[in-house]
Amino acid sequence: MLATHISPLVVVVALAGACQGGSGPASGVDAGTPSVDGSSDGLQTFTCSAGPVSFAPADKSCVDVNDCAMVFHQTDCCGNSEAVGINASAVDAFTTSEAECSALFPGCGCPARPPQTEDGNAATPSQIRTECRDNLCRTKSVF
């Protein structure tokens, strides 16, 4: 009979890494980080890594900031999210899909960090604003 010994440190590191850097639990659920699809049409694509939820591409186009709205997309089981600016007309469709996606993430017991903004900063919701830059809705942090 082969005896195995797992160091407590290895277990702690494995569990700590389960929600680090936007990745999900060890079961394979990972971040559904939103990304602009790279085309010139100004659409934002979202993925739900927690399960099979389809998001319609969200329109990011704007003429001024009044065309924009901020939405939060959950990226992992800890409840981490990214604040994304989209056209206000796309909010209802996003909200429906986001509710379905968020419900699929298992709770993994780790604390959520402040949301990431599209300018690359982490900020509390009260420190995040939308802007219309280059005719695209975006989020930015204001400290």
Labels describing this entry:
alpha+beta; 7 strands; disordered N terminus; flat; 143 residues
Question: Can you offer a commentary on this structure?
Answer:
The chain has helices at 8-16, 91-104, and strands at 35-36, 43-45, 58-59, 68-74, 81-87, 128-133, 136-141. The chain is of the alpha+beta class. The protein has one domain. The chain has a three-stranded antiparallel sheet with strand order 1-2-3. Strand 4 and strand 5 form a beta hairpin. The protein is flat, with a radius of gyration of 18 Å. The termini are far apart.
Brief characterization of the structure:
The chain contains 2 helices and 7 strands; from the N terminus they run H-E-E-E-E-E-H-E-E.
What is the element layout, followed by pairings?
Elements: H1 8-16, E1 35-36, E2 43-45, E3 58-59, E4 68-74, E5 81-87, H2 91-104, E6 128-133, E7 136-141
